[in-house]
Amino acid sequence: MSMMKKAMLLGVNLMLILALVACGGGGSNTSNEPKESTTNEKNEGNTAAAPVQLQYWTDDRHDQEYIKEMVAKFNETNGDNIQVELTVMSENYTQSVDIAFSSNQAPDILRLKSANTEAFFKKGYLQPIDGYLTDDMKTKFSSVIIDEVNRFDGQIYSLPNTGLTLRLVYNKDLFDKAGIANPPATLQEMVDAAKKITEVGKSEGIYGFALNFKNPKQAFDRSVREILSLSGYQGLGFDLKTGQFDFAPYAQVIEYFKQMHEDGSILPGAESLDIDPLRAQFAAGKIGMYLSFSTEPGVYQDQFPTEINWAGALAPTLDGQKGTSEIVSAGTWLGMSKTSQHQDAAWKFMQFMYADDVLTTYHEKGFGISVVPSIAETAKTPDVKGMEGFLIGEKDSLWPVAPNVTPEGANYADTFFKYMLDGGDVQKTVEDLNQRYNDALAKSVEKGEVKVTPNPSFDPANPQGE
Amino acid sequence: MEKLKRLQENSLFLLPSVILTLVLGIYPLIWMLRYMFYDYVGYGEALFVGLDNFSRLFRDEQFWASVGNTFVFAGGKLLLTIPLSLLLAVLLNGKLRGRNLLRGIYFMPTVISTAVISVVFYNIFNSYNGMINQLLMKYHLIGQPIDWLGPKHAMLTVIIVAVWGAVGNYMLLFLAGLQSIPQDLYESAAIDGAHAGQRFWHITIPMLGPVMQMIIMLAIIASLKGYESIMVITEGGPIGKTEVMYLYLYKLLFPVSTGSPVTQQFGYGSAVGFATAIIVGAITAGYYFLSKRMNKVF
Question: Where is the ABC transmembrane type-1 domain (chain B) (predicted)?
């Protein structure tokens, strides 16, 4: 009995400790002061001391072999006794980072993406790196530093490496078969091409157009966004000139998508299509064209190897190329944790990763398209089939950022997708979206979450104003 | 003295579950009850907004549409699952050859991951190369592929998947209930000349009453709360046709990343969570009240 009691007490104590640990994690990482160097760092260079251990977290999987190689090289060659440990995460990267910061187990170096940087900055996870930047680095990256992307409140948190371009991806064989010589330059041509391809191929299950409409926002943010920026409008419905949302140009693009739906030119079942099943169908030669990121060449090389003859081309426009194609997901790569005990060491690793040879090889191996001008100019074209259509050219540029607001009710993509399938009053749809998005914008501005500066002289042909 | 010792011991036994309930049940509940009065996105300051989240809830068409969809989904699932699983249980309770193997097979969906099942069903039902359409077309039952996951049929499809996943589970519960019915009741009924149908209606059903009451209640709660397979198969689409309320809630709290930044809405999400809990609670309580008779059959 007494043995049992002891065991029970031990068990209860363990439970209590567990509960206390679980409750007591958060709250201690709120200091805004950068961490001082620790004894370990003062001992840097002294090989007899224990090595400085750094944690580097990323959710990039496509480049992990190369990154592992670079980390190993850094660990071997750095003279400061720094050892970096790479952790490649899969899904739920953001949640993992949140948990790590709230339980004081945050990594020293983090992969930052345009989708998470702003939130990480606002949550206070990131350390500005201005103090570390050398003059050379400042010059190298000067033209690709963008407010609200890698610079917040005047301080730089990350430097860019690569970005994604958006293109029309089309099956040349199907275009030939339908007697169409070139990829469409206007949306009307796209509608006509989709119809023709479907007419010729429908009996074999071939359709002119498809998008991953299972998540309409993912579908439109890789298609309408590109069509709009190339046509001279910001791609997410924001008017940079007035500093307000205006979905009228968006609706114009949607009319053409609606037409393709009514013509029956869109792959049946596209309403529930994810991007990978779509790619599988494209690789099988069942889809004439779709729009997507510069990740596609890599996908058709490794994930869905295909025999079809395909290429990437600039997207069609509303009425001619009055703007530039927006390079997306650019501007950030590595960031430093505010809570890191070894920030100087972390910077040494970042400096190693941002060196010309590492960035150049990254581009040449086709892991991403370099947006750093000095690298993009000198690096060789990646040896990946189809990549030539996605490379950054004179029609590509970085755009100012549209404010991220969350309106009440359905987002623009769900709203327009409903209009595309069900019809309705487009004028009212646009007014309703403008109203809800601008209300949400006003609220965010009032709360200080978002800053908006209208730029009446904004030129879509030269979005950075240089 | 002895009593006190017993009390101490009992409390010690209770402690682990009390602590777990406090940490994992009560604390999040209080957290949610607090934040439903705030505008909070997971970082920065939480702004007290009073009842704003609730007034938004009342004019939120998407939410009310999802409540409607939940009723259709849950109703459809229950109407098919309960009779089917009862039928299977009765059949497999009889002297059937290989019944243990069959029980195992029917129960299998319960132990397979919902996500895996859903991906398989996506491949069976998708309209461009799904197996169902290929079969139906091969035997000339349809001329054109049916868009099983399109706006017209998506709800039916997710109900079919849900029923497939649930039947084995409830079959097992019914089997347990059936095995608790004394055999002599059937024997004496048989001596009195009652045929199989009469025995089912006049013995099996009434004797199963209390068990059935519980099973149906569990099934109601599960079908009102179920959203996992829908999330994988249609993500609530197309155009919200299969968006059930817990999926809507999930998306508010854990928005699907689209490449562009997404914002978690903890404040409004908490209000929606509260409302959904009230709806599920009210329906369950209503059912429990109305089904009291089932408990008193014998």
Answer: 67-287
CA-based torsion, A442, A444, A447, A450: positive or negative: negative
Residue B191 lies inside a defined structural domain of this protein: yes
Residue A60: pLDDT over 90: no
- Give me the number of domains chain B comprises: 1
- pTM for this predicted structure: 0.85
**CB-count exposure of residue A143 (10 Å: 0-12, 13-18, 19+):** middle
Q: Do A205 and B129 touch (CB under 8 A)?
A: yes
The answer, for B14 touching chain A at a CB cutoff of 8 Å, is no
Bridge partners (DSSP) of residue A209 are A266, A289
How many whole angstroms separate alpha carbon A45 and alpha carbon A421? 65
**B52 belongs to a structural domain:** no
Determine the distance from the C-alpha atom of residue A177 to the mean position of all C-alpha atoms in its chain, rounded to a whole number. 35
Confidence check on the interface: ipTM exceeds 0.85, yes or no: yes
Mean pLDDT across A317-340: 91
Kindly indicate the confidence band of residue B258, based on its pLDDT and cuts at 50, 70 and 90: low
Question: Mutating which of B17, B24, B260 best tests the A interface, going by the most A Cβ atoms within 10 A?
Answer: B260
Which residue reads 């920065």 in tokens?
A: B44
Chain B partners within 8 Å of A22 (Cβ):
23
Assess whether pLDDT exceeds 70 at residue A2: no
- pLDDT, residue A187, reads 96
When pLDDT is cut at 50, 70 and 90, the band that residue A400 belongs to is confident
For the record, the structure tokens of A174 come out as 């199907």
DSSP A25-90: STTTT---SPPPP-HHHHTTT-TTSPPEEEEEEE---TTHHHHHHHHHHHHHH-TT-EEEEEEE--
Asked if pLDDT for residue A403 goes beyond 50, the answer is yes
pLDDT of amino acid A43: 44
Task: Tell me the nearest-neighbour CA distance from B147 into chain A, angstroms.
Answer: 6
Which of A19, A22, A271 is facing B238, going by the closest CB pair? A271
Checking phi first, is residue A116 left (phi over 0); if not, alpha (psi -120 to 50) or beta? alpha
**CA geometry: angle at B225 spanning B254 and B206, to 5°?**
170
Shared fold status for A49-162+330-384 and A166-326+400-447: yes
Residue B230's pLDDT band (cuts 50, 70, 90): very high
With b meaning 16 or more CB within 10 Å and e meaning fewer, what string describes A194-233?
bbbbbebbeeeebbbbbbbbbbbbbbbbbbbbbbbbbbbb
The domain limits of chain A are: 49-162+330-384, 166-326+400-447
CB A297 within 8 Å of CB A387: yes
- pLDDT above 60 for B144: yes
In angstroms, the separation between the Cα of residue A9 and the nearest Cα of chain B is 8
Q: Is domain A49-162+330-384 annotated with CATH 1.25.40.10?
A: no
The pLDDT > 70 percentage for chain A reads 89
Find chain A residues with C-beta within 8 A of B147's C-beta: 268-269, 271
Is the confidence at residue B45, as pLDDT, over 80? Answer: no
Is residue B149 one of the residues assigned to a domain? Answer: yes
pLDDT for A32 equals: 39
Q: What is the pLDDT of residue A16?
A: 44
Q: Mark yes or no for CB contact A114/B261 under 8 Å.
A: yes
CATH number at B212 reads 1.10.3720.10
The verdict on residue B157 lying in a domain is yes
Closest partner residue to A422 among B44, B239, B257, by Cβ? B239
| Spatial CB neighbours of A407, under 8 Å, sequence gap ≥ 6 | A433, A436, A437, A439, A440
What's the token pair of residue A3? 């043995």
Supply the range of the domain harboring residue B275: 62-296
| Residues of chain A numbered 232-271 and touching chain B (CB < 8 Å) | 236, 267-269, 271
